[in-house]
Design brief:
Elements lengths: L4 E3 L2 E9 L5 E8 L2 H27 L3 H13 L4 H15 L13 H13 L4 H5 L1
Antiparallel strand pairs: 1-2, 2-3
Helix pairs in contact: 2-3
């Protein structure tokens, strides 16, 4: 946790944090009192922790099926008939894949690897599995 640094008659706070997206967040603020600087640190870091927790809760409560449904409504439906039919075919395969009911947090590379291996073992062509 960062500590306020005395700079002349004021207190400076420097916060450097790497977010989940890998982007470094830099915050520099100056305050008249040590107490104000300390409150800012607590508010800033507390807000970040709450945002991360809310984001993870949302991911935990969202399934791949829900994402596919939303994608179909927002992206696929407005397309012309032929591309829409092709995309719906692909989306149907994903919905029937056994992966669709997993939460976004549960979707890990090993899960996709097992799915790929199962498809290959069942005789699906490599290009079919890759699509």
């Amino acid at each position: 946790m960062p500590n306020p640094i005395k700079r002349g008659n004021s207190w400076q706070v420097k916060i450097r944090r790497k977010g989940r997206d890998g982007i470094l967040e830099k915050v520099n603020e100056t305050f008249d009192t040590h107490a104000e600087a300390q409150r800012f640190i607590e508010l800033k870091l507390g807000a970040s922790a709450r945002h991360e927790r809310m984001s993870r809760d949302k991911e935990a409560n969202t399934s791949l099926r829900m994402l596919l449904d939303r994608y179909e409504q927002e992206v696929v439906d407005p397309k012309p008939a032929k591309p829409r039919a092709q995309q719906r075919s692909i989306m149907t395969k994903w919905r029937n894949s056994g992966l669709a009911d997993h939460s976004l947090l549960a979707l890990e590379p090993e899960l996709f690897g097992r799915w790929r291996d199962k498809q290959t073992k069942a005789g699906a062509a490599g290009s079919t599995v890759a699509n």
